[in-house]
Design a protein that fits this description.
2 domains; 4-stranded parallel sheet
């Protein structure tokens, strides 16, 4: 109560709730109401839906500000963004926010392996990720993925589970035994949605899980986030 800053997980607005059942995240309205009740000075919304663009986030902030205005109370609402710094000054009446977030550290021309037996999907991901400045190699089965990962070191690997010759779980387990891939981000791309499938994927060594069908901005955001995180740990 009375905190200077509250950082709250909010992926969607109340109007989105019917389509987000079971997601386990809070709505913007809920976060605003909690912050108002606690007389918080600044509310920072984070963990945005990866399918929501900047305009969509601005719309959420506008909704939040309208809710604050209707309450007659004061609350500053901002949306977290990549690299943004929130500086708390004991003598200031409110936190100082850097308006131009620092650019995340990314490896030069990151190398990515995309392994999936869906040739069309692989080509789409190749095109999109090449456009983002990455060096991308395709693989169409688990053995092909192993061979390419042995021949060349990758900064990140996107891999399907159900592939011919060798499935993604076995391929991931094999690659994790190699020193060069101990800390590499492995993102699984799969249509499997059972909890057991997720558990098996993480147990095999995957670090993230993207369900098919997915939106390309979601994959791009996850790739960028994992590469930035890995690069930051290496500094």
């Amino acid at each position: 109560k009375g905190a200077d800053v509250v950082v709250h997980d909010t992926q969607y607005a109340g109007r989105d709730l019917p389509a987000k059942s079971g997601w386990g995240h809070s709505t913007v309205e809920y976060a605003v109401d909690v912050a108002l009740a606690a007389r918080v000075k600044t509310l920072v919304l984070f963990h945005h839906d990866p399918n929501r663009d900047d305009a969509g986030i601005d719309e959420l902030i506008a909704d939040a500000e309208a809710r604050v205005a209707a309450s007659g109370l004061h609350l500053r609402v901002i949306a977290a963004s990549e690299g943004e710094e929130l500086i708390l000054d004991e003598g200031a009446t409110q936190p100082v926010v850097e308006l131009e977030p620092a650019a995340p550290i990314l490896p030069d021309r990151a190398r990515i392996l995309v392994a999936d037996d869906d040739i069309t999907l692989v080509r789409i991901l190749e095109t999109v990720l090449h456009g983002d400045g990455y060096d991308v190699d395709p693989a169409y089965d688990g053995q092909d993925a192993l061979a390419k990962a042995n021949a060349r070191e990758y900064d990140l690997i996107l891999m399907d589970i159900a592939m011919p010759l060798l499935d993604g779980l076995a391929a991931c387990r094999e690659l994790r035994t190699m020193a060069r891939y101990k800390e590499t981000p492995f993102i699984v791309l799969t249509a499997r949605t059972r909890q057991d499938d997720m558990t098996d994927a993480f147990a095999a060594g995957f670090t993230d899980y993207i369900r098919k069908p997915f939106a390309l901005p979601q994959v791009r955001a996850r790739v960028r986030s994992w590469l930035a995180r890995t690069a930051a740990h290496q500094v």
